[in-house]
Specification:
mainly alpha, 62% helix, elongated
Length: 191
């Protein structure tokens, strides 16, 4: 049986996604300008990283979780025992769940606020990030093979992280100014 999982697999996937995102940013930079190209690529990369961190098993030796051992419902025990079950860089799972969604929301705001439609798209995107968290939890519930647990605490922490990232993105808007885009060359005067 082949098993795939662990922090190394997550990091390798994130690195591969970063290379692809960088290539995409370089490809669309002439059309959108540097700030918007980086924002769109960063948003895409962030969404892939979220999927990797939440859907790849935390250990490579998980094996197959028997169907009868699988949870039938999401845990509604807010702040329950799962918070200390997984640590990276000395940060507990709850903190990691918050931090995981911050970059996606920052890049979302910077990507869509290039246009006036961003006033509508940014809040819709924030709702989309909340829905993304919910979908991830439902996948964790249905795919026992992942050895992950569906937990309402994760959803709340993810949405909190997205909200923090949204505010940070709004604060960064006047600094980054993604609406500047690329400058069109001025026409030459005829002689």
């Amino acid at each position: 049986m082949v098993t795939i999982g662990g922090v190394g697999v997550m990091a390798l996937g994130a690195l591969a996604a970063a290379v692809v995102a960088l290539l995409v940013a370089l490809a669309v930079r002439p059309l959108l300008g540097t700030a918007s190209a980086v924002s769109f690529a960063g948003l895409s990369w962030s969404l892939v990283v979220i999927a990797l961190v939440t859907l790849v098993p935390t250990r490579p030796d998980v094996g197959i979780v028997p169907a009868e051992g699988r949870s039938e419902a999401c845990s509604w025990d807010y702040g329950g025992p799962s918070g200390a079950a997984f640590e990276v860089f000395g940060l507990d799972q709850r903190t990691l769940n918050v931090l995981l969604f911050v970059p996606a929301a920052v890049f979302l705001v910077l990507a869509v606020c290039r246009w006036w439609a961003g006033l509508v798209l940014a809040p819709l995107g924030l709702a989309g990030l909340a829905a993304y968290s919910l979908v991830i939890e439902m996948v964790q519930l249905q795919l026992a093979r992942l050895d992950r647990a569906c937990d309402v605490t994760d959803i709340v922490d993810n949405v909190l992280g997205a909200g923090i990232g949204f505010v940070v993105g709004v604060v960064l808007l006047p600094v980054v100014r993604p609406w500047r885009g690329r400058r069109r060359p001025e026409p030459r005067p005829a002689h």
